Structures are given as structure tokens and as C-alpha cells.
Amino acid sequence: MQFVSSVLFLAIALAACASAVRIGSFNLHQYGSKKAANPTLTNTVAEIINDFDLAIIQEITDVTLKAPFVLFDALNKISPAPYSMALSERTGRSATKEQYIFFNRESTSGLELVKASIYDDTKHDYFERAPFIATYKVTNPGPSGVKLFSIMNVHLRPDKAYPELLKMRNVIEDFILENPQYFAETSTSHAEALEQNVVDATIDNKPSLKTDHPILIVGDFNADCAYISNLRQQLLRTINFVDFHWVINNEVKTNTRQTCTYDRIFVNGQNFVDAIVPNSNTTVDFAKRYGMTLSQALHISDHIPIKFDINW
To answer: Using an 8 Å Cβ cutoff, are 123 and 26 in contact?
Structure first.
């Protein structure tokens, strides 16, 4: 009887994992015309992304704007079901500009894009590259209670990573101001959400944002090693983003050399956090998967993807 119960529990657990939606983020490290012109490299990148139902991409660098469509076509050639692509405009203060992408395979993600746009940083100049913000609707909401959520896709400037990350509280404030419909009918009112999102936090005035509309900050934060010290990371965890769940922690190394945790996933929204499959928040070691040397892996990217699985 005990054996039967164990088998049944395992079957239920495996079924839950099989139905889970996989969300991943990948900095492609200067994916431009040269990389796009290499079909072997592009197909490998597409195979890596194909593991994700929703893929959050940074560092598309082609000035001709062709590279994202080359990758999009390669991805849809190998995917069992079509992806849609939400592509940002080129963004960046300097001559070196980049694009972000959200690839969504709706048939497996259960998500429908509501809106996607670059954060309007023209009045502030907070960022080297303004975040790309997308809101998704869960088409068949389940026990999680998640119906809508928003992702802020970021690639923070390495030598300004800490101040740029602090400015993400301003981005959240503007998002709340511009989208009262997501907050007015939840357990947290629009006014309360604005009050709880403390922009200039201190030890005596910490943010405490609690809302039924989850907000995710995802991407290449450059949030470790030489760019954000352990002391500053502790301040971020305990003060500035104390109300966010850090899905990727420092034990998970996200650069290809496996030395630093540059890439992160922050989640605000307890219903979203509770729906994440335990121990699914990790990296995808594509070098091991494809039997690559370090040198070969670095040709793909100097980052490895981060991901988590979730049950709606």
C-alpha cells in the first residue's frame, strides 16, 4: 500500500511538472548581424530558447534590425507551436543601442500579450537602456489566482548597475500611475500601491508593495562581483527591494564562466511566488547540454539562461 501511494505521489508530481509553464531569460551578448549570419550559432540559440514557453531576451545589437527576425524565423522552424515576438525599438543613450524581445508560445504558455512598450526615460535619463515592459494575461487562470502580470525586461549598465537598479522603483511608480486599472480593484488600492512603493527607501522607510497584480523585474542586472558589491546587494535585499522575492540567488552563477550572478529575477506578488515550482529557479547549462568547451559556449553568449517553472 505504501509503495502504491509513493508511485501515485510521484505520478502527480511528474504531471504537475509536465504541465508547468517555463519562463526564461537570456542575454545573447551582442546578437547582431554577424551572429545572425551564422546559421549553426543561430539554430543553437533557437534550440536553447525553445525550452521556454515565454522567453525574455536582452542584447540584440543589429543596426540593420534584421537579426531579431532571423532568430524569430529559426525559432519557429524548430518549435512544435508558433511563437509570437514582442520586439522593442532600439534603445540606448550612446551610439551602441540594443533591442529587447519577448518570445511567447501562447499554446504552451497560456499567456496573451496585452501591451508592450519601452519605458519613457526621455524626461529622466535614469538608464543607459530603458527597460522594456510587457503585461500578459493568463488565458485560463487556475488555482494560483494570477490573471495578469507585468515583466520589466532590463539590461543594466555594468558600471551604473546599482543606481540604475534603485531607479527601478521610479519605473514601478510610473507604471502604477499609468495603469490604475491593475491596482484599483485588487486587495491593494491604487493609492495604497503608490504609498507602499517607496522610491527613496531608507532603513526607517522601506517599500512594502503588496498587490494582486504581480510585477517582475527580469534580465541582466550586472548585479554581482565588480559591479554590485555584497554589501550593496544586502542593502537591496533588506531595504530597497525587501518586498520582492529574489528568485535567483547568489548560489546560482549566471555567467558562462560560472563565477558571478549577473542575471536576476525579482518578483512582487505572493500569489505569483507561491505558484512557482519549487527548485525550478535555476540556470540552463547549455554548454553541458551540447558538450561544448568554454570557448565554444562563449561564442554563443557570456551569459547562460535563467529560468523558473510556474503553474497557473
So the answer is: no
Is the per-residue pLDDT at 50 higher than 80?
A: yes
Contact in structure between 161 and 232 (CB atoms under 8 Å): no
In a domain, 8, yes or no: no
Cell numbers of 196, please? 507602499
Answer yes or no: is 266 within a domain: yes
Q: What is the mean pLDDT of residues 164-193?
A: 89
CATH classification at residue 111: 3.60.10.10
Whole-number pLDDT of residue 4: 42
- pLDDT on residue 187: 60
Q: What is the pLDDT of residue 260?
A: 97
pTM: 0.92
Residue 6 belongs to some domain of the structure: no
Report angle CA 41, 28, 17 to the nearest 5 degrees.
Answer: 90
Structural domain span for residue 300: 20-310
Quote the number of domains for the chain. Answer: 1
- In one letter, which amino acid is 42? T
| 54-73 tens-digit pLDDT | 999 999 999 999 999 999 99
Over residues 75-103, mean pLDDT: 96
Would you say residue 3 lies in a domain? no
